[in-house]
Amino acid sequence: MSSPRLPPRLQPLDELEGVLRSHAPATPLYHSRYRPRVLVEGASGKAMPLQFIKKKKVLAFAGIVDPEYFVYLLKKLGADIVHSIHFPDHYRYTPKDVMMMREHRERVDLFVTTEKDYVKLQKIPLDDLPLFILTIEQKITEKAFYQSVFSSLSS
User: Does domain 34-153 sit in CATH 3.10.20?
Assistant: First the structure.
C-alpha cells in the first residue's frame, strides 16, 4: 500500500515562507506537525490504539479549517475512507446532520471526527453511531521556539 499523498494545499510552504521573510526578515518562523495520539470511543470514552482504525471503513467528518489534513491523517493510519464530510470551521451540528451521517451507517465501520467537533456533538443523541475521536498533538519542530517562550516567561 502506498503512503497517502498530502493534499495540494499542504505541500511544503517554501513560497509562503519566502513572502513572509521578505516582509519581516528578522522575525523567526516556526514549523509544527500534527501527530495522531489515540482514538477514543465516543460512547465509552475508552482509548483505543491507533492501529484499531487500520483497514476499517470510515466516514470522516470535521468542521475545522483544514478537514483535508484530518482525512490525510486517517488515511496515513490505514483507514479506508469511504466518505468524508467537510463542514465549515466552528460548525454547530444539528440532529439533521447526524441523520444525514446515519444514512451511511450500513457502509462504514466507524465514524471518526476531531476532539473539537466531538465537543459540539455532546447534546445530540449519537447512540447507534460507532463514533470515534482522533486525538492529535501539535509539535513545534524548532527547539528555538520553546527557548524563546521560556525566556519570555522568565523575563
Answer: no
* Cα–Cα distance measured from residue 118 to residue 42, given in angstroms and rounded to the nearest whole number: 8
Torsion over CA: 79, 81, 87, 88 (sign): positive
For residue 65, count other CB atoms closer than 10 A to its CB.
10
pTM above 0.90, yes or no: no
Give strand pairing partners of 123: none
Give the contacts of 84 (CB within 8 A, at least 6 positions apart): 59, 60, 61, 67, 71
Which helix (H) or strand (E) segment is 37 a member of? strand 32-41
3-state secondary structure of 148: helix
Q: What is the pLDDT of residues 4-20, one digit of tens each?
A: 766 655 555 677 788 88
Secondary structure element (H or E) that encloses residue 99, with its range: helix 95-102
Q: Locate 84 and state its grid cell.
A: 468524508
Q: What is the reported pLDDT for 96?
A: 95
Distance CA 94, CA 120 (A): 9
Residue 89 cell numbers, joined: 470551521
